[in-house]
Amino acid sequence: KAGVTQTPRYLIKTRGQQVTLSCSPISGHRSVSWYQQTPGQGLQFLFEYFSETQRNKGNFPGRFSGRQFSNSRSEMNVSTLELGDSALYLCASSLGTGVDFEAFFGQGTRLTVV
Amino acid sequence: AQSVTQLDSQVPVFEEAPVELRCNYSSSVSVYLFWYVQYPNQGLQLLLKYLSGSTLVKGINGFEAEFNKSQTSFHLRKPSVHISDTAEYFCAVRAIYNFNKFYFGSGTKLNVKP
Q: Which positions of chain B have pLDDT values less than 50?
């Protein structure tokens, strides 16, 4: 089956701009989580969406937001970009309920803020 | 909340030698334990997971890990490494009730030398 698809793979933005990243989960998966990966802070949980509702949230400022659509695709938005937002953003897809023991990760979107 | 400590940031090893990557965790609730591997500019791939039962779990590519509840450890081992095992390895935990919210360690870079 098709894996988790993240678009775009690479992005360069200027400070102060905003950006939207997209994640298409595995078919049938209703949970999508987002992570930020940086050399200094490692992998940090941003938020999780399940059936179009935010179910969990990490400790990131309000500039980071997300949403999930009825087909389970998710978008993450970062407003007023800062240099420190440069990172690899990963999304993870899982069933989100019942017998759910595994998450599948996409290849990530590499965001560079200049 | 949960936390994960990977004791070694880098592990150099010669090809065909055994290797152990160490992981300790902390949690006040029951958790599942995972090891993921990340190749350069890629997402995370699941190596193995511990859910319950036998404390020795086997994963892909010849890796195995042992869960030790008393020491709250989940060390990853491979009896004979290959050049292709060169990558970064992440230990992660997830509360059993939090489907898609992982806490990751800081990662261990395994460098396999010929």
A: none
